[in-house]
């Protein structure tokens, strides 16, 4: 029997996506977000969550995904080794927790950008891209997403050159 993995299925716009459940620290209702001057457009800002500060990312803005009025918006806060680097992803709705057997997961096609999608969940009537959270928030991908921070870009170039 194949190993079971758990995913959180969510909506951005009209499409479903998923992340591995082990990457998510908590899911919260929207909170007040403070704009950050000079931040890329897809960085909504920062928010106080409990006693910490979380950077809120809205990938809909980066990938030109039209928001939907369906569902209840949520912020998924991801695990981080560093307390100062907590990141939250704004989503249009959290759909459900999926338990998926290994044979229902498929490698992504080579044409898909390797830094954003990790694998694909196949269900009876749908396919759901799984976002690679580690890669999504890595220096290389942040540069690819359009960061204008010269220090971050230099780090990413160093990583790519190694």
UniProtKB/TrEMBL annotation:
One of its GO terms (biological process) is signal transduction. PANTHER family: CHEMOTAXIS PROTEIN CHEW, CHEMOTAXIS SENSOR HISTIDINE KINASE-RELATED. Transmembrane segments: none annotated. GO terms for cellular component: cytosol. This is Chemotaxis signal transduction protein. PROSITE patterns: CHEW. Residues 4-142 form the CheW-like domain. InterPro entries: CheW (IPR039315), CheW-like_dom_sf (IPR036061), CheW-lke_dom (IPR002545). It comes from Desulfosporosinus youngiae DSM 17734.
């Amino acid at each position: 029997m194949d190993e079971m993995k758990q995913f959180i299925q969510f909506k951005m716009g009209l499409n479903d996506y998923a992340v591995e459940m082990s990457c998510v620290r908590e899911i919260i209702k929207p909170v007040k977000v403070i704009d950050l001057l000079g931040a890329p457009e897809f960085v909504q800002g920062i928010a106080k969550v409990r006693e910490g500060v979380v950077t809120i990312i809205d990938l809909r803005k980066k990938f030109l995904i039209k928001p939907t009025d369906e569902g209840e918006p949520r912020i998924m806060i991801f695990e981080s080794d560093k307390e100062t680097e907590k990141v939250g992803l704004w989503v249009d709705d959290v759909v459900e927790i999926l338990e998926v057997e290994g044979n229902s997961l498929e490698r992504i096609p080579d044409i898909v950008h390797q830094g954003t999608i990790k694998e694909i969940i196949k269900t009876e009537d749908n396919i759901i891209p799984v976002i690679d959270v580690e890669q999504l928030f890595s220096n290389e991908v942040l540069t690819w997403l359009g960061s204008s921070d010269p220090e971050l870009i230099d780090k990413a170039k160093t990583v790519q050159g190694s």
